[in-house]
Design a protein that fits this description.
binds zinc ion, hypothetical protein PF0899 fold, single chain, alpha+beta, 28% strand
Amino acid sequence: MHELSIALSLVDQVRRIAEKESARQVVSVRVRVGAMSGVDGEALTFCFPMAAREFPILENARLEIVAEPMQWFCLECRQRFAGESVSERVCPHCGGLEHHLTGSDTLTLESLEVA
Ligand SMILES: [Zn+2]
């Protein structure tokens, strides 16, 4: 399962930061998931407690997912705009129809709330 390995490395990263900050408990973890990352936010939410349960510091941690929208890059005016649908997508800046998808393909640990 792809998301379980992501959850495990996320837990590892969170644990190291929390230990460095001498936190006793991690309350919540916020991650930003790029539209092109191929990560299923729901599956990750499901896997996170499984990955976290071995570590007391993380046992009550809540995972918050911030889904980053898809982005398009207009080839006519060279500006970016957000949008989910591929069909009939018109650039809001110039009305252009030529653009390609540039959504982020990364998963980023955005913030941690610790106690
Ligand atoms: Zn445009």
